[in-house]
Amino acid sequence: MPAAAEPDRWEFRFAGQGAGIPVTASELYDPAKGYGFEPGFAPERDKPFLFSIKVPEGNYRVTVTLGNAKAKARTSVKAESRRLMLWGVETPKGRFDTRSFIVNVRTPTLPPPPPNAPGGTAVRINEREVGKLHWDDKLTLEFADTAPHVAALRVEKVDVPTLYLAGDSTVTDQPAEPGASWGQMLTSMLTPDIAVANHAESGETMKSFITGLRLDKILSSIKAGDTLFIQFGHNDSKTAWPQTYVDAATTYPAYLRVFIAEARRRGAVPVLITSPHRRNFDASGHITNSHGDYPDAVRKVAAEEGVALIDLNAMSKDIYEVLGPDVAPRAFSNGGKDPTHHNNYGAWLLARAVVAGIAVSDLPLKSHIRPDLLPFDPRHPPGPDALILPESPIRSDVTPRGN
C-alpha cells in the first residue's frame, strides 16, 4: 500500500477567526500532531510567542492575518531563527491585516552519494547548532512587538526563486538576542515572491564551508534563476587557524572562484560581498582596516570573473564613521563591547546597505526589492533611536563562534 502523501498546505485559526484547524493558547507543539506553540513560548498577555508546524524541507508562502477583535495590536513576525519577515504591523481594535512572506525550511540531511562515492548524508553542524530552529523539521514563526496578535495562519509549499547566503557570523541567522546579523533581516526588505535561505554560520571559512558539507547542501538544491551571495574573510584570514587559513593573494581568490564556478555550473547567479569592517576607530574617528588585503582580493576576483560585487566593506565604513565612536557601539552586540557582531539595529543597517548594493546592480534580484522601501544612503544612516526593532524572547550570553 503506498504511503500517504505529505500535505503541502496547512491552515489554522486562532480566537475563532478564519478557516482551518482551531488552535487554543494551551496547545503546545506535539510532533505527532504536527503543530503547536513552542514550550515556554505560548501566548500570554502581550508577550512574544512561537508557533511551529511540522513541514518537509522547502520554501513556503506564509499568510498571516494579524489583529485582535477586542484590542489594538502591534505585531512583528520572525521565522525560524529570528529572520525578520514583518515589522510593526499595527491594527486597531476589531481590525485585521493580512500579509504574506516566504520562509525557507531546511534540515541537515543531504542526498546520499552513490555507492563507493565520497561525500556524506548530512551537514556537519557544530554543537551550538544542535536543536536550533533553522536546522529542524519545523517551520517556526515568532510573533513579537508591543502587542502581538495573530488571528489566522495559512502555509503553502511553493516554488519560487531562492537567494542563498554563504558566509560567517556577520551573515548568519543569530539564534538569540542580543546578537543579530544582516542575513536574517533581508526577507523584510524583499517582495513576498522570493525565499532567503541563510546557510551562513558563525566561525565558518570557505574551507570549512566545503569540508563541513555546507556548500554541498546549497548545491543540492540551488538551480537556474537562484542567486548565491558569498561573503567570507573574517575567519579565513586567521593565521592562528592553520587548517582553514587562506592567503589573500593566492588561496583566498582560488576558493572564491570555486564558489563562483559551482553556482554558475547550476545556472545560478553568484554575487561577491566584501566583509563589513570591525568597529575599530583611530584617534581621528576613522575606521581602521582590520581585514588587510582580503576586501581588495574580493574586488579583484569580481572584476576578473565578471561577477556582481556588493561592497559592504566600504558601506560599513561610511555607516560607522557617520555614527561616530560614541554612537556606533549602539549598533553592536553585548552593549557595544563586541566590535564585530551586531545587534538588531546594526544588522538592519548592514542588510539595508546590501539591498542598496542590489539596487544599483544589474542583478535580476533587484526586481524583488520592496517598492515601498525607503531610500538608504550609508553616509546618512538612521540613528538607533529612529530604528527600534522588536526583541525576540530567546536570549543567550554565549558569544558567536570565531569571535
From TrEMBL:
Keywords: Hydrolase, Plasmid
Chain ranges of the SGNH hydrolase-type esterase domain: 167-320
Pfam families: Lipase_GDSL_2
Gene3D superfamilies from the UniProt entry: Galactose-binding lectin, SGNH hydrolase
MF-aspect GO terms: hydrolase activity, acting on ester bonds
InterPro entries: Galactose-bd-like_sf (IPR008979), RhgT-like (IPR037459), SGNH_hydro (IPR013830), SGNH_hydro_sf (IPR036514)
Region (Disordered): 376-403
Family that this chain belongs to: Belongs to the 'GDSL' lipolytic enzyme family.
Protein name per UniProt: Rhamnogalacturonan acetylesterase
